[in-house]
Amino acid sequence: MSQSHRPLEVACPQCYKKVEWREDNPYRPFCSKRCRLIDLGAWADGTHRIAGEPAMDETDIDEMVMRAERGLQDE
User: Residue 20 carries which DSSP code?
Assistant: First the structure.
């Protein structure tokens, strides 16, 4: 039996429009450049984020390094 292979269809993560998952779609899994850029903007402004502990900022890292260096120098 011969089956015709249809490309996998996925929902665009932004607008939920059905999109064929094909190599010639440069925006996959998104349906368009617009949806891809909207999603990128959400990551950039912090709307999308990965759950977990907040990352340390550079000031915290610098203080930790200075404390570690002082601890080594005291010995």
Answer: E
Q: What are phi and psi of 13, to 5 degrees?
A: -65, -20
Torsion 7-10-13-17 (CA) sign: positive
Start-to-end C-alpha separation, the chain = 78
Q: Is 6 helix (H, G, I), strand (E, B) or coil?
A: coil
Q: CB 39: neighbour CB atoms within 10 A?
A: 17
- 51-64 residue pLDDT tens: 887 777 778 888 88
Residue with tokens 């390094």: 65
| Predicted local distance difference test score (pLDDT) of residue 26 | 92
Q: What is the pLDDT of residue 66?
A: 87
Query: Three-state DSSP class for 68?
Result: helix
